[in-house]
Amino acid sequence: xxxxxxxxxxxxxxxxxxxxxxxxxxxxxxxxxxxxxxxxxxxxxxxxxxxxxxxxxxxxxxxxxxxxxxxxxxxxxxxxxxxxxxxxxxxxxxxxxxxxxxxxxxxxxxxxxxxxxxxxxxxxxxxxxxxxxxxxxxxxxxxxxxxxxxxxxxxxxxxxxxxxxxxxxxxxxxxxxxxxxxxxxxxxxxxxxxxxxxxxxxxxxxxxxxxxxxxxxxxxxxxxxxxxxxxxxxxxxxxxxxxxxxxxxxxxxxxxxxxxxxxxxxxxxxxxxxxxxxxxxxxxxxxxxxxxxxxxxxxxxxxxxxxxxxxxxxxxxxxxxxxxxxxxxxxxxxxxxxxxxxxxxxxxxxxxxxxxxxxxxxxxxxxxxxx
Length: 371
Known about the structure:
Layout: H1 6-12, H2 19-69, H3 91-94, H4 101-109, E1 140-146, E2 151-152, E3 155-156, H5 204-208, E4 217-221, E5 251-254, E6 259-261, E7 279-282, E8 314-319, E9 324-328, H6 333-338
Parallel strand pairs: 1-5
Antiparallel strand pairs: 1-4, 2-3, 4-8, 6-7, 8-9
């Protein structure tokens, strides 16, 4: 009889994994995945935040290129009648400087060109789910300064901001930072706040000779911003009617109800004109960094004309000198408020304030450069 080879005998007795062994292997793999996934998610979040920072850096270069071409003047917050993209935002002026000359020329040749069908990656943060990759949408907003104290032909404009289209919250003022006058020091921007105005441009020389370009914010993020191509200014200086787009969808600032300046009776709907930019008190319940993003549905306003992002702990900000930094949502309120001015040091602004930390709460702070 032919005997079997020893190796053949062993092969017949070879066995597979038991159920318990298989379950142990699966459990080990699950634990490893659980350990690795947070790190992967954090890496992806860091990459998106870096891309956002790079977008703002690109806009900073574009802003300075524009200023070089126009004797130091920055774009206005919106284009007046007769200009390419009339009544549309500052974003139109920067198109030729962010490699979007073809879009600018299309609009120049055809004022009715459907810009709302065009997606500009440099205008959206990849973390902004409502804007990233979507045609016509905007994440980055311009510094309009202290709004709500403006006057038109000597008549005060009601203070405050409005919600983005599609939101409706009762008892929110339906006024807007639409037609600010900057011809006298008693008007809002005449006191040196905000880098982008409706009626005239701000010159970089004015900034560098005053508070300094390193201390003044130019652009930041707002996940509740609107469209980069919508109408935001109106003919004959009129304010927008209910339901029409407003400047607050492409700009940010601090309303009259968020800050009390010297000469004003309160941080509220005050018709008194400030006598300087000295900050007496702040209450940034509506205007602090990430105050809306921290609440479901965008907070109490629906839209906050303030820095808001999906980045954990703060927002990216572009400063006038071209730097981009990540600013904590816990920044001292007075320090943050002063970063929106470019001539505050010469117009009575001080670091003292009766309130401190961000998010509408009192807290610690620091000097003007504490970003």
